[in-house]
Write a structure and sequence with these properties.
312 residues; Rossmann fold; Histone, subunit A; 2 domains; six-stranded parallel beta sheet; two-stranded antiparallel ribbon; 54% helix
Length: 312
Amino acid sequence: MTLLPVVLLMGPTASGKSALALDLAEQLPVEIVSVDSAQVYRGMDIGTAKPDRATRERVPHHLIDVLEPTEAYSAARFVTDATAAIDAIRGRGRIPLLVGGTMLYFKALLDGLSALPSADPSTRALLEARAAREGWPALHEELARVDAAVAARVHPSDAQRIQRALEVYLTAGVPLSSLQSARNAPDLGAIVSIALMPGDRTRLHASIRARFEAMLAHGFVEEVEALRRRHALSAHMPSMRSVGYRQVWQMLEGEIPRARLLDKGVVATRQLAKRQFTWLRSLTATAFDPWAPATPSAVAKLILDAAAPRRA
């Protein structure tokens, strides 16, 4: 049996991806797979614009509420989880519709990931001790001697990336750059890649602001306060580094005043959207303006055309 296509629906934050996905679910036999590095966390609902329970009961969603906010999720785990979800959805004779804005996850699914060694706590501790004595710029100089390619794209004060690159070199015995050149992508079969590319940036910025205002009005700050009471969280955890959550955390810690929270959150979200545009331009996809009236029907036709020959 010929497999139905995998549909990738990508776009910057606040561009209407979720609304379009639900529109498509009314027309096509799809199940939605979230491609969002924050929606995987339980309890992080308001700040991630997570679909509510009624919506998820009406349209099947996957890779939402996967783990606690104290845990870490990775692109490698996403590829494993998404591939399993895709296989299961296809097995039910339905179309996997992958929707989100975490571009690294899309790229990992399309291009594969390097087979890197697991984190080594003892090596990391040694590197952190050295950095405390010598400073991260000194370790960056060492990285330049053993892996010039990675050092060239890592800032001398970027502790996380310097540490990981040196850790890989010390544990695997080879430069990180050489491992990154060998990638294994899953065989997904037919793929339909769709990118929502708003032509009106002013409208996108207004949408970003309106959405952040709505999040605050619906209890975003209270959500983070509840998470802090329920879990042993820190500002360095991936969940709390998510856009929006980071700014609310800073406000709760007294680093920024409440009056500045909206503007800080909007600026951070606009910066995220700018990075997402950069990622999108590096991927091959059919672009649509999310606010063009014909977009929903045009996207549905594109998917139907891709699926029809395989269902014959």
